Amino acid sequence: MNSASLLQLSLVIPLLAVVGIQLTARRENVREAVSLIAASALFATVAQLYLPLLNGQTIAVHWLDILPGLALAFRVEPLGLMFALVASFLWIITTLYAIGYMRGHGEQNQTRFYSLFAVSIGAVMGIAFAENLFTLFIFYELLTLCTYPLVTHAGTDKARQGGRTYLGILLGTSVGFFLLAIIATWLLAGTLSFKQGGIFSPGTSVALLSVLLGLFVFGVGKAAIMPFHRWLPAAMVAPTPVSALLHAVAVVKAGVFVLLKICLLIFGIDTLKSIPATEWLLYLAGVSILFASIIALRQQNLKKRLAYSTVSQLGYITLGALLATSAGMTGSALHIVMHAFGKITLFFCAGAILVAAHKTEVNELRGLGRQMPVTMTAFFVASLCIIGIPPTGGTWSKWYLMLGTFEAEQWILMALLMISSLLSIAYLLPIPLQAFFGGKKPLEIEAGTAVVLKEAPLPSVIALTVTASACVYLLLYPDIFYRLIAAGI
Amino acid sequence: MLAHLPILQVILPLMAAPSCLLIRKANLVWLFTLAVSFAALIVSVLLLQQVYATGPISYTLGGWQAPWGIEYRIDLLNAWVLFIVTALSTVVLTAAHTSVQKELEPNRQTVFYTLYLLCFAGLLGIVATGDAFNVFVFLEISSLSTYALIALGKDRRALWAAFQYLIMGTIGATFILIGIGFLYMMTGTLNMADLAARIPPLSESTTVLAAFAFIFLGICLKLALFPLHLWLPNAYSCAPSIVTAFLAATATKVALYLLLRFTFTVFGVDFSLSHLPLDILLVGLGLVGVFAASIVAIYQANIKRMLAFSSVAQIGYMVVGIGIGTATALQATLLHMFNHALMKGGLFLALAGLVYQLGACRIEQFRGLGRTMPWTMAAIVVGGISLIGMPLTVGFVSKWYLIAAAIEQQLWWVAVLVVLGSLLAVAYIWKLVEAAYFQAPEVDAVKEAPLGILLPTWLLIAANIYFGIDTRLPVEVTSAASQFLLGGAAQ
After folding, report:
1. Cis peptide bond prior to B441, omega within 30° of 0
2. What is the mean pLDDT of residues A224-230?
3. Residue B310 pLDDT
4. What is the ipTM of this complex?
5. Are the beta carbons of B145 and B122 closer than 8 angstroms?
6. Closest Cα of chain A to B420: distance in Å?
7. How far is A409 from chain B (nearest CA, A)?
8. Which of A38, A40, A113, B56 gets the highest tally of CB atoms within 10 A of its CB?
């Protein structure tokens, strides 16, 4: 099969999965098998694009022109492939995890859940492979709309409130700023196709570009730059697999990925450097990193804490993209991958704790390590990955980000990154450490009964073990992704 | 036959209307009306094809030559509007049988279809004619039948709403008549093309200016442009559901057509936009209308009324396009005429299904609707998403053009306000979504709307998506039509 058909296939598989899931709605095991097969097929399809792309092949598909000059078209470029690889791989793992979680937790409407999950992944593929901003915007909005029912899955008042915030901010920013910026870009540059080195001609007014950059940074609300970050904690009312794949990987990474792509392929590194607004937005990202870390420190709800940690880490990625140096961009792209693996593991753990021990608050987790050793070990490893210390892949991305601030001579930002790393140690590491060593021993032990090993259902434990191992694996072999990034920047 | 298409377009429904009274049996009358509307649709498609291929058609009534006799003149602009009106009327009529049977007493159904056809003929006449006085005649035909149609509503408030509309509509029509009278006084002609040629030398005359002011104001009343919109929400919410769907999809579009025709063809761009600060006035009123009406819509408990206010807001967008006045902006307006007809037609038909099952459509009736009437509710969600202007729906296409037009003219504030306005639509649409999907139904026994209403609803909703992806037809026609409007002003 040639590469263009593979690209088509990667966009179609999620839709086929929806059909399959709907058809097999009555038989749970078959339905979940369909999800798993579709996820594996998608990953296999995307993976086959890897070598042809690195060999310099152009892989593109043109569907149709929606408006004159504005096409629904797709083209594989290295960063997009990186994003698609991560998302499709983690879809397999998350499906596995979800099987354990959704059954263990006795959730309702599982067919709807799995269908919309597949649609979301389809939208992510569209975003990853979009050839132009117009196509990208279509799938960006699709992703918002089809994740709304997932966020509000519980159907309670709290879910409805969360859903309002979610939709309000994501639609508000995308229609209010992003769309405006896209149309203005179209009128200014005459094209919306992503191009190495940017699409604006050298003479374009710097003031106008500043406004545009601002509109883009705020408009891509999925990147959760403060003050438009509140949707992410609000989305935590969703079932944990949704929080894990969508709000640690697919949706938020779609946001920062779009920003990275805009910085790199719409503005271009050189233009980006020349815009005065870049400086301001860099500091905004810095503030976002710092504040979110401080807020995370004060969250007692485990998922909320992880959510604010995500806001902070997304700030790193945005900051890396705006640094407009190759090291910064590399760090930014690498952090998309590393943070994805780390954060999804953390969410998996949070969900496993909920299912097995019915605990959601941080201070309830003391001593839990004896009951759930695998989960808590995974939590520990993933925390290291988020913080960015060996033996995990997060080391690489933080290293390049630091290098980026060094190259750009942004000393304040460099200090800021360090402080924030310390803060992330403070809000993440105590959780696994206290689980293993902290506090009083559980009552059962004092009463003389043996500690009961009670982990989450097996599929969930396998899932979180795989992602935690991937964090370590990526320290040793980051070059799968590094090669793509080097080709893309 | 082909040469007589312009008059066939109007005469067909006009003659058919009294014939309804002869048939009498409600089922047959419905079939007959549907057939007539469908025939009118075919005529309009043929006209559109012909005009697109060969340019404007002129038809002289009874062979009397143009400035003396009545001329029907079909160019791309009115061919497009004729197509919108006939297409939407036909789809709405397919749903009429089921809905009218439920909402009207048997002895009123024949009258209903008679009035419907009269109104239909009036609207088509306004659009097809090239004679200013003829416009007034058809305006009265359509208006009078509309008042009666609204008064057929079950609710007693319908009478009051119809009366209110009667007063406002008559004032509007009178203003238009006065304006046409002034023009006749100054130029001695009623033919639009002839008027267009004779007005420029007289452009300094106060009488011509007064004529313009009267006509403009009169049309704005019929158009329900903010702040002259007060009749519209009552009329829409009290009328029978089918009438609401028909009026929302067609009547305002025709009024908008008149505004375009008079400002761009009869008076000409130079006169309209240079003698008066019309551009600022239209952009300003349009935007204020968008915000005021959208905010009011959020607080409506009657959903028909909510969508009626939303219509006022959408009219605001179309008027903004006229105010900006460039080719792209006019194209946005023309696109939105079509797109809005599709959205509101679909949404009001969905409400007709709701009224059929529940007898009313207040927000309380929406509770649990996601479970009890999944298809109707899904139609409302998709229609709502199109109204908001999400990509892959028609709403996105017209919004794209409108924002592009504003930015082209460096009117950044207009662009920003347009997008903010569309966010208000999210607020009122999501009120329905939350009620339907997050609350338990009050009565569990509610069934899905009958197929007779559901199918036409989904036809329109599917069109919302189809024309949001395959935009060739609307975009090409409106592009040519807007060029024609600007270039062919003094034809």
Report:
1. no
2. 86
3. 93
4. 0.85
5. yes
6. 6
7. 36
8. A38
3-state SS class at A155: coil
CB B129 within 8 A of CB B72: yes
Query: Which residues of chain B are within 8 Å of residue A153 when distances are taken between CB atoms?
Result: none
Partner A contacted by B391 (CB < 8 A) = yes
Q: Which residues of A touch B475 (CB under 8 A)?
A: 67-68
- The DSSP secondary structure of A257-288, one letter per residue, reads HHHHHIIIIII-HHHHHH-HHHHHHHHHHHHH
Kindly report the average pLDDT of chain A as a whole number. Answer: 86
Amino acid at A426: A
Dist. CA A22–CA A25, nearest whole Å? 5
Question: Pairing state of beta strands A70-75 and B57-60?
Answer: unpaired
Residue position matching structure tokens 């083209």: A75
Cis previous bond, B227, omega within 30: yes
DSSP string, B105-170: -HHHHHHHHHHHHHHHHHHHHHHHB-BHHHHHHHHHHHHHHHHHHHHTSSSTHHHHHHHHHHHHHH
Q: Which amino acid, A468?
A: A
Q: What is the dihedral of CA A134, A138, A143, A148, to 10 degrees?
A: 130
- What's the CA gap between A460 and A104, in Å, rounded? 10
Amino acid occupying residue B76:
L
Distance from CA of B413 to the nearest CA of A (A): 11
Rounded CA separation B457/B345 (Å): 8
Chain B interface disruption, residue of A15, A63, A64, A66, most B CBs within 10 A:
A66
Partners of residue B416 in chain A, C-beta under 8 Å = 176, 180
- Rounded Cα gap, residues A219 and A174, in angstroms: 5
Rounded distance between C-alpha atoms, residue A54 and residue A33, angstroms = 33
Smallest Cα distance from B397 to chain A, Å: 8
Calculate ∠ Cα A34-A36-A39, nearest 5°: 105
The owner of tokens 């485990």 is A302
pTM, full prediction: 0.89
Sign of the Cα pseudo-torsion (A450, A456, A462, A468, in order): negative
Q: Is A176 on the interface with B (CB under 8 A)?
A: yes
Give the chain A residue nearest B473 (alpha carbons): A67
Q: What's at A17, amino acid-wise?
A: A
pLDDT of residue A451: 59
A147 vs A189: CA distance, rounded Å? 32
A67–B426: do the CB atoms touch at under 8 Å?
no
Cβ atoms < 10 Å from Cβ of B443:
10
Contacts of A137 in chain B (CB under 8 A): 391
Residue of chain B nearest A149, judged by CA positions? B437
Instruction: Give the range among A56-70, A408-422, A441-455 with minimum mean pLDDT.
Output: A441-455
Model confidence over B190-245: pLDDT tens digits?
A: 888 888 888 888 878 888 889 988 999 999 999 888 888 888 998 888 889 999 99
Contact yes or no for A424/A290 (Cβ under 8 A): no
Contact residues, chain A, for B474 at CB < 8 Å: none
Residues 6+ away with beta carbon under 8 Å from A429: A380, A383, A387
B64 CA to chain A: closest CA distance, Å?
43
- Say if residues A398 and A421 touch (Cβ distance below 8 Å): yes
- Please tell me whether residue A63 adopts helix, strand or coil conformation: strand
- What pLDDT is attached to residue A441? 55
